[in-house]
């Protein structure tokens, strides 16, 4: 029974890759999985519930490798490099296309949106933990909301993944800008204690002027 469920989950992901969310149905998933379509409803109750399970399963399947890569990250530029590597791997696997289709399908389906958001949160958690580790003691950490920064990085990379499909040069320019921002943070971290104290005071003052 577990094998059939896994075949249906794998079949759902592959069906989205091949046919898009609009072409994904119990019939097309079952055909891809090589099983009777009645098994979709027997194991999951509905196509939507199968898609939700598949979205989370596909994310968890990749998460261990991602977390291992992040464990070795020693700076913001290295974090961005890890993001680039993940991006290249996910595109090669066809997972960027699957994510784009799931997000498109979520626009008019609150249940699918909830499942897609839950999968995205699985990516955000290790990014936040890595940022917490990398920015300990950094003057910029006094101004930044680390949780918000983790969300922004995740959202930014998802947007770039989709953007790259229509404007590769623009996506590359955006990534290059993120690299330069990471270098700027490293420069700030290398300041002497007097300069760091002055910068902290300046950042706190600037931050106090914004809600």
Name of the CATH class: Mainly Alpha
Instruction: Summarize the biggest pleated sheet.
Output: none
CATH architecture: Orthogonal Bundle
Q: H/E order of the elements? A: HHHHHHHHHH
Helix content: over 70%
| Dominant shape | elongated
- Spans with pLDDT under 50 lasting ≥5 residues? none
Radius of gyration: 21 Å
Structure summary, number of beta strands: 0
- Averaged pLDDT: 82
Structural class: mainly alpha
| Amount of beta strand | under 5%
Please give the domain count: 1
| CATH level 4 superfamily | Tetracycline Repressor, domain 2
At the fold tier of CATH, the topology name is Tetracycline Repressor, domain 2
Q: Number of helix segments? A: 10
Distance between the termini: 54 Å
Could you give the topology of this structure?
Blueprint (H helix, E strand, L loop, with lengths): L1 H18 L6 H8 L4 H7 L2 H25 L4 H18 L1 H12 L3 H25 L11 H19 L3 H22 L3 H16 L3
